[in-house]
Write a structure and sequence with these properties.
Protein DETOXIFICATION; MATE_fam; disordered N terminus; membrane; mainly alpha
């Protein structure tokens, strides 16, 4: 009897508060229905079944429906998560395809960047060679002190593209501007130093390189390197600006600049060497002007991107250490390559004028064939920092 009275009291309590119980049940079911609701329901079920209260059966049905609804919601949530995982996986595959297309679009124009230098040297060789075999032979040591030596400073290009690409991956445009400014300053300093070294020590270096047997080519070679030496500052600054654009994944801007430079060089060679008969001096002037124009267009390309291409900043000791930490291995690698190809020219020079003239033609053809893999190297330098350090 007391059990039935207790059940009736519970039943009365349930009727009085059943408008609130579902609210509490919903709250508890969403948190942890098995830990909070089930024990209470089991106690009530044992009491109410003996008295078979209809209101409790309704409450039980509501709780059962809510538990089933919660279970179905959890299952639907799991299915949605599985669908989302499938979508992400598909978009990742699509992203890889898009990246492949982007790499092809970048490396394709970059081929022209690496071909422009050997192509201009080949134009000089072809035009000068039609006028004089002695001047053609003089291009051998002349290009060693102009073109080969310039590759030593390739570390500036490597450092620029790496630092710019890394800062852009971190979305720090102020740091990009600062790095461009300090690297342009370094390019300008090294260019001025090379200009004075060419002025002061050019004739002595050529005499030591060619030897006494080839005295007839020293004057022509010296004329060539003195004129080309005027472009040293513009050349290195242009390389920094070009590498900054490449670090921004822009290969079309530098390609346009070098295409204009190649046209200027070709037209200048024909006009100055063939029409006005300036010979090797005309070829040097045409190349020098084309390099200055290319450097200016490279800097203007940076200005069009919103950066200050003509701004320079003096680097701190830590910044110099960072640059040379990146560029040190590249500097040693390029030094070894320059030494190797310079020795080839040195030994060819010792074999006479005709031999060095023939060697000059063949080495320029070789250079055109040797640079086809360089665009992929530049692609890695421009794209890998985003994958390694990117905010996404």
């Amino acid at each position: 009897m007391s059990m039935c009275l207790q059940a009736i009291n519970l039943n009365t309590f349930t009727h009085q508060s059943r408008t609130r119980i579902p609210v509490h049940n919903r709250t508890l079911v969403n948190v942890n229905s098995h830990l909070r609701i089930s024990p209470i329901w089991n106690i009530r079920k044992g009491i109410i079944t003996a008295c078979s209260a209809p209101s409790q059966e309704i409450l039980q049905q509501k709780l059962s429906d809510e538990n089933e609804t919660s279970s179905s919601d959890a299952e639907s949530s799991d299915s949605v998560e599985n669908e989302q995982q499938v979508v992400v996986e598909f978009s990742a595959n699509e992203s890889i395809w898009n990246q492949t297309v982007e790499i092809i679009k970048f490396s394709g124009p970059a081929v022209g960047l690496w071909l422009s230098g050997p192509l201009m040297s080949l134009i000089d060789t072809a035009v000068v060679g039609q006028g004089s075999s002695i001047e053609l032979a003089a291009l051998g040591p002349g290009t060693v002190f102009c073109d080969n030596t310039s590759y030593i400073f390739m570390f500036l290009s490597i450092a620029t593209s790496n630092l710019v690409a890394t800062s852009l991956a971190r979305q720090d445009k102020d740091q990009v501007q600062h790095q461009i400014s300090i690297l342009i300053f370094l390019g300008l300093v090294f260019g001025v130093l090379m200009f004075f070294c060419t002025r002061l020590f050019g004739i002595r270096a050529l005499t030591s390189f060619t030897g006494a047997k080839n005295i007839e080519i020293i004057n022509s070679a010296n004329t060539y390197i003195q004129i080309r030496g005027l472009a040293w500052p513009a050349l290195l600054v242009g390389w920094v600006a070009q590498s900054a654009s490449l670090g921004m994944k822009d290969s079309w801007g530098p390609l346009k600049a070098l295409a204009v430079a190649t046209v200027i060089n070709g037209v200048g060679d024909i006009v100055l060497c063939r029409v006005f008969s300036y010979g090797i001096a005309g070829a040097a002037w045409a190349t020098m002007v084309s390099q200055v124009v290319a450097a200016y267009m490279m800097i203007e390309a940076l200005n069009n991107k919103g950066y200050k291409g003509f701004a320079i900043s003096i680097p701190s000791t830590d910044e110099l250490l960072q640059i040379f930490t990146i560029a040190g291995p590249v500097f040693l690698t390029m030094m070894s390559k320059v030494a190797f190809y310079s020795l080839l020219v040195y030994f060819a020079t010792s074999m006479g004028t005709q031999t060095i003239a023939a060697h000059q033609v063949m080495v320029q053809l070789f250079m055109i064939c040797a640079v086809w893999g360089e665009p992929l190297s530049q692609t890695a330098q421009s794209f890998m920092p985003e994958l390694l350090y990117g905010v996404n």
